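Forum > Structural Biology > Help requests

Title: Can anyone predict the 3D structure of Azurin?

Hi all, first post here. I have the sequence for Azurin but no way to get a structure on my laptop. I'd be grateful if someone could post the structure tokens.
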Amino acid sequence: MKVIKSLAGLVLLSAALPTLADECSLTIEGNDAMQFNQQELSVPASCKEVTLTLNHTGNLDKKVMGHNWVLSQTADMQAIASGGISAGADNDYLDTSDERILAHTDLIGGGESSTVTFSTEGMSAGGDYSYFCSFPGHIGIMKGKFTITE
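Reply #1:
Sure, ran it for you. Structure tokens for Azurin below:
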């Protein structure tokens, strides 16, 4: 009887694992109209790692309409974007040595995708986090809130 209960518990646990993994996996799209398809993304505090995939649904090359996804404290967004412009096109408009960047994808063009997996260690529920695209001029429109929920 104990074996049956143990097996039943394992079955229930294994059924729950994909749900937990799904909660910790996010997808967002950027397009040629300089828009993300979501203005808010959230994950539960139980996620120790988050995997985010950025899909560029447009057709334009990254030199013309490139998009990335950059996560930071909201207060740091503009300074990071300005540093990205200084880093230039050769560095995909992002100074990756900037420690204020919590996570980022590659800069991609139309039809491409990029995935990043990042730790939430040091981030907290209720923290003021935002995401944005660092391609020059995009931060004004391509931004949103990132929330860790209890």
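The two ends are 37 Å apart (CA to CA). The CA atoms of residues 88 and 94 lie 7 Å apart.
Shout if anything looks off.
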